[in-house]
Design a protein that fits this description.
There is one protein chain. This protein has 327 residues and is an alpha/beta fold. It is globular, with a radius of gyration of 19 Å. Strands 3, 5, 6, 7, 8, 15 and 16 form a seven-stranded mixed beta sheet that branches. It has two domains: 141 residues, Quinone Oxidoreductase, Chain A, domain 1 (Alpha-Beta Complex), CATH 3.90.180; 141 residues, NAD(P)-binding Rossmann-like Domain (Rossmann fold). It is 30% helix and 26% strand.
């Protein structure tokens, strides 16, 4: 038997609860993992509360990522005792996920945990931090260097934002953090932000083109915020878009793209190819300041994950929530 956060909708109301399940409930897969830790991302909040149709198969164990130890494997890449991490691939959406003490998945979905990271640190990073790394890699791949100019990070108090600030500052970039919680300015500066701007500067409808303010952007917000971030990007700058906290719409014009040569990169963490995932996790193990990461983390037991899902959607969570599924 193992504990899991189960989502159900059997012709009745959508509901999330902590259940005791037996191994017959484990889905198909060639690797079984003893989960140490999971986490609560924004998408997990949507799945747990049912605020968006993230879960598309019922009943289903929630949790889009996990880190733990292989218990059994028929996959050639993995053996019992291997430390692994998983993000995405529809886990927690169409395939039972990581908010459980055990998980069974396809071995092709797993990535070896870098030796420099513990399973707890891997979930302190989580899908949010892994996505932040993909954004940073996109900006660097575009050719942006610390002397190219400032980098704007929107949704700075969220998981993507916090890890992006820490990564960028350690790599030598000057970071401008946009937040709706000015009382958290000191915490953002401790992560490495050099300047704090109010969310209101970007969240309302704006002009097609604005003053050139930053060379690059990591955006997890979408909607008007993303449009205004693009409008303020410098000539031949780049924007990495990975989220929709404000909305899925993009009320912008083509002006920044055809008049300033701005590039908009869409960052998909769910179906990213394995080689890119491996590169991102190796970079996280090397480039992320783990002391700063520890300062972003609050650990909760599995029983608290349901309430945490609502909290993260309400914007009341700063940094990262790590779920100890065995607590």
């Amino acid at each position: 038997m193992y504990k899991a956060l189960l989502i159900e909708k059997d012709g009745g109301p959508y509901r999330a609860s902590i259940q005791q399940l037996d191994d017959d409930n484990l889905p198909e897969g060639d690797v079984t993992v003893k989960v140490d830790y999971s986490t609560i991302n924004y998408k997990d909040g949507l799945a747990i509360t049912g605020k968006a149709p993230v879960v598309r198969k019922f009943p289903l164990v929630a949790g889009i990522d996990f880190a733990g130890t292989v218990e059994a494997s028929s996959h050639p890449s993995w053996k019992a005792g291997d430390k692994v991490v998983l993000n995405g691939w529809g886990v927690g959406e169409t395939h039972s996920g990581g908010l459980a003490q055990r998980a069974r998945v396809k071995g092709d979905w797993l990535v070896a945990l870098p030796e420099s990271l513990s399973t707890r640190q891997a979930m302190a990073i989580g899908t949010a931090g892994y996505t932040a790394m993909l954004c940073v890699m996109a900006l660097q791949g575009h050719g942006l260097k610390p002397d190219s100019g400032d980098i704007l990070v929107t949704g700075a108090n969220g998981g993507v934002g916090g890890v992006a600030i820490s990564l960028l500052s350690k790599l030598g970039y000057r970071v401008i953090a946009s937040t709706g919680r000015p009382q958290e300015a000191d915490a953002l500066k401790a992560l490495g932000a050099a300047e704090i701007i109010a969310r209101d500067e970007l969240s309302a409808p704006g002009k097609p083109m604005g003053k050139e303010r930053w060379a690059g952007v990591v955006d997890s917000v979408g909607s008007h915020t993303l449009a205004n971030a693009c409008a303020g990007t410098k000539y031949r700058g780049a924007v990495a878009a990975c989220g929709l906290a404000q909305g899925m719409d993009f009320p912008a014009s083509v002006a920044p793209f055809i008049l300033r040569g701005v590039t908009l990169y869409g960052i998909d963490s769910v179906m990213a190819p394995k080689e890119l995932r491996q590169q991102a996790w190796q970079r996280l193990g090397k480039d992320l300041d783990l002391a700063k990461l520890d300062g972003m983390v609050r650990e909760i037991p599995l029983a608290a994950a349901i309430d945490a899902g609502a909290e993260i959607l309400a914007g009341r969570v700063r940094g990262r929530l790590v779920v100890n599924v065995n607590a």
